[in-house]
Amino acid sequence: MKDFNSFKSGENSGESQDLNFSGDPFETFAKLSAKYEGKSSDDIMRAIIYQAEKSRKAGKLSDKDIDNFASSVAPLLNDKQRKTLYLVVDKLKQIK
Question: Mind listing the pLDDT tens digit for each residue in 18-64?
Fold first, then answer.
């Protein structure tokens, strides 16, 4: 991933499957993993950001939901991925 700004809403307009970020974070992560198996980390990050922004703007994703997802997924990531995750979390929390 080059930087967060390269992953703007709409760049991944082909995404049609909504993911429930406010539900079980492991289920959401499993769905993303299955859907993007073999894809690049950039593709996966785009999908997460696209769906999270969509849910956030629709009022279906709270700060608590974002924190729960991040805290559940963070232990599965390496240090670099975890840093990226927290940058994304901060950016998503700014969306109202």
Answer: 556 666 767 777 776 777 788 887 887 787 778 888 888 888 889 99
Domain carrying residue 84: 21-94
Query: How many distinct structural domains can be found in the chain?
Result: 1
- Token pair for 82: 């975890």
Q: What is the 3-state secondary structure (H, E, C) of the chain?
A: CCCHHHCCCCCCCCCCCCCCCCCCHHHHHHHHHHHCCCCCHHHHHHHHHHHHHHHHHCCCCCHHHHHHHHHHHHHHCCHHHHHHHHHHHHHHHHCC
What pLDDT is recorded for position 38? Answer: 85
